[in-house]
Structure formats: structure tokens, C-alpha cells
Specification:
Helix content is 30%, strand content 18%. It is an alpha+beta fold. The structure holds iron/sulfur cluster (SF4).
């Protein structure tokens, strides 16, 4: 996979073309909350970037682990409940019932709406660039496609969308596509094997513990 080539493609995306596709597919959020909740016994799983975690920390200074958890894919859980392994992304933290920790079930809304991650801002859409369907960014499958735009399962699809809203969403999708590739390049370039016990998250800034604290070079 040539990440630099994919990044160049992402930077060159035509927002008007993406907006055309979104208009063609159609979308209006019904506020059903399904994209914020754990479903079918599975915890909610959505990518969040390190700087997005810090952006949420700005308001009230919550701890890193109150916002994000290591993406569980690739980690191993032992019989005694301890988890070990390396992972390469952060996921939005979940509550006891498996929903996103920021989902207000009583109010049926996101409690950090203005600072929600790019993945949340762009759901149910994603862009396919070079790596096919790899960036679905959610637990479900592609249900519609228009050029590079992929639509994932959502009851809001097929509804009328204004040109202004389609263009705003298209711009955010492009921003996400660029950020995803910048993050992947950062992870690749900053990866250093560690001998630290437990879980290690390798993000674009280096290796971190599950609480977000950097792992020092003395462990590499
Ligand atoms: S951050 Fe907000 S929009 Fe994103 S999954 Fe959580 S509750 Fe939903």
C-alpha cells in the first residue's frame, strides 16, 4: 500500500464530485442514535485521532482514558481478564452498556456534538481511495456507492439533502480521508517495538499506554 500516493489522491479530491454523490444517495440524520450505541452485544467501536482526544480534553480536562480506549482489534484477553498486545488506533471510550461514553441515552444526543470526531461527523459515508473498502470505519457494510463515496447502513440514507449540507459533508469527508492517511503515515514512521507489558497503542505520535501516556525511549 502506497500511503503517500493515497494521501496525494485524498488531497486532490474534488469536493463538488463528492457532494454530487452524497446528493445522489441522499441523507438526513434521523437522530436514531444507532451509530453511537453498541449493537448486537458488541461494544461501540469508532476511531478517534490523538488530537481529537486532546480537543475533547480542552473542555473540563477529562482524563485520556475517559475519552478513548485502545482499539481492541489484535489484542488478546487472557482467562484472568488481563489484556495484552499492540494496537494502532484509539477508539471512542464505551460505557457499561457498550454505547459510546458520550451518548446521552436520555436526551438521545451526543454530549460533545460540536467536538465529535471526524468519523462521527461523516457517518454513514466514507471514501474509497486506493485501499478499497478498508476505511469503512464502522462495524457495518457498504450498502450504496457512488464513485469514491461509500454509504454504510443507516436509516437516514435516501432522504433529501440540501446542496449546502452535501457540500459541508463532502468537505468533512475529504478532511477525514486526508487525516486518516496522515495518521497511517505517522504510525508507520514512528513505530518502535517495545517490551512493555500489557497493551501498547502505536499512534502517529509514538507508543502510548492505554491511559495516553507516552512510552519512553528507554523501553524501546
Ligand atoms: S462522540 Fe457523539 S456522535 Fe460520536 S459516537 Fe459518541 S455520542 Fe455518537
Amino acid at each position: 500500500m502506497d500511503l503517500e500516493a493515497d494521501l496525494a489522491v485524498a488531497r486532490g479530491l474534488d469536493v463538488d464530485v463528492i457532494a454530487d454523490a452524497i446528493e445522489s444517495i441522499g441523507f438526513e440524520c434521523t437522530r436514531c442514535g444507532k451509530c453511537c450505541r453498541g449493537l448486537d452485544g458488541e461494544d461501540h467501536t469508532a476511531t478517534i485521532f490523538p488530537e481529537e482526544i486532546r480537543e475533547i480534553q480542552r473542555d473540563g480536562d477529562p482524563e485520556w482514558s475517559a475519552i478513548a480506549r485502545p482499539m481492541p482489534f489484535g489484542l488478546t484477553e487472557a482467562d484472568d481478564g488481563t489484556t495484552t498486545g499492540e494496537t494502532f488506533e484509539w477508539a471512542l471510550q464505551t460505557g457499561a452498556c457498550g454505547d459510546c461514553t458520550f451518548y446521552d441515552a436520555d436526551g438521545e444526543k451526543c454530549s460533545i456534538y460540536d467536538r465529535r470526531p471526524l468519523l462521527c461527523r461523516t457517518y454513514p459515508f466514507s471514501l474509497s481511495i486506493g485501499d478499497g473498502e478498508a476505511e469503512a470505519g464502522s462495524m457495518d457494510s457498504v450498502v450504496d456507492r457512488e464513485g469514491p463515496v461509500r454509504a454504510h447502513e443507516c436509516e437516514g440514507l435516501g432522504r433529501d439533502v440540501s446542496r449546502a449540507d452535501a457540500e459541508e459533508l463532502a468537505g468533512t469527508l475529504k478532511e477525514r480521508a486526508i487525516r486518516e492517511r496522515e495518521e497511517a503515515i505517522g504510525v508507520r514512521d514512528n513505530y518502535q517495538p517495545t517490551d512493555v507489558d500489557g497493551v501498547v497503542v502505536h499512534d502517529s505520535e509514538g507508543a502510548k499506554r492505554p491511559d495516553g501516556s507516552p512510552i519512553g525511549s528507554e523501553h524501546s
